């Protein structure tokens, strides 16, 4: 706990022990007579403690906002107009040789939520002046959908600028050929100019994480084709679940055959679960509701694990249910948030505690750990948001200050270990705290957004009207 929190707690405890001046009388030390507190005194003390907490939260929100600015300024200085900043070499990286303005598109709605008005205006102009999609390049449908299509749609909803929607529609129409497989499940890559596709072996996340973006595009432009194709892909995948109700790690979209039967909730499958739940919540889609309910039931039955080290979700064979590994990764840490959003606060809380234990064991979470003996399997930290995203949902649904304490820990560690003179850098090794030359766009789209929202006034995002896509782009239900 931070020093000032201890101080506030001490002041509050003393206030409860010492009666207010007006309550003291000659009998005040009599054991028979209970100490009485005036109602107005107690109200004042509670109000005071609430004010202290609110002040602390505002300070934290401002610190996160300040650090967003720091990272953004680094991008501006060394990578302006490119996909990503390389924070150590102070240079840039374009994923496909030509820039798709990935960091600006991913970061814009965070700027808007943080009320960084000048940065948001400048970024929007950069995008509108320069971004176009007619390049002869093969892009990964999943990444471009969640970061770019999701970012453009969300920024359109937040600004009302129709040019952003036009860009989203242009992009969406160029991505559509991915669905032209014999099964309707998408190929991995598509050429933005020619519509040629490649990559027939893929995974549930890449197939099932498209409905929020394509579905929203359909609703906003009034063309059902986007919703229908993304929904069909999701259903085709679900139809291929095992008799136990589990999906595997790899599948061929041409044959519809599984090529890896390992089931889990982590990277490669993760956001398939997320979009079943959120497809239901965002579109009131009853098929998604049904698919989510049967899938989560199977995951809880076969993947959840009560181990000596805590509550986890591990790997199992999708057909036999036999345990196939005790690995849990930074990507898996989105799951407490999903559980909380679905109303399962008990499992959500327990799993987030396990994730937090991982974080505090090394000061920052490793990419993958073996939960049976708490050893590191993959030692990097890519500035990922998932554990923070989960704290955000848990804080929202429980109002428990525990999750603000966690959030302070996350923020302080990231600031201590990942901050550079110009921005933020991933860690190559969480034990040695060695940095890597990478700042992925999701650091600005997600990690800092969820940290900010944890401390910002509750009304900053209204979760009864908004669903976040898997890249933390808020989508408003306007239909
Ligand atoms: C993001 O691009 C998305 O959150 C995705 O669902 C998983 N990986 C990264 C963040 O870790």
What's this model, at a glance?
With 479 residues, the protein is an alpha+beta fold. Helices cover 51% and strands 12% of the residues.
Notes on the structure:
A three-stranded antiparallel beta sheet has the order 3-4-5. It has a three-stranded antiparallel beta sheet with strand order 6-7-8. It starts with a helix and ends with a strand. It is built from 16 helices and 20 strands. With 479 residues, it is of the alpha+beta class. The protein has a single domain (62-476), classed as Glycosyltransferase. Bound molecules: 1-deoxymannojirimycin.
Would you tell me the structural class of the helices and strands? alpha+beta
Sheet-strand content, in percent, reads 5-15%
Largest sheet: number of strands, sense, barrel closure: 3 strands, antiparallel
CATH architecture: Alpha/alpha barrel
Distinct small-molecule ligands in the complex: 1-deoxymannojirimycin
CATH structural class? Mainly Alpha
Specify Rg, calculated over alpha carbons.
Answer: 24 Å
How many helices? The count is 16
Integer count of domains: 1
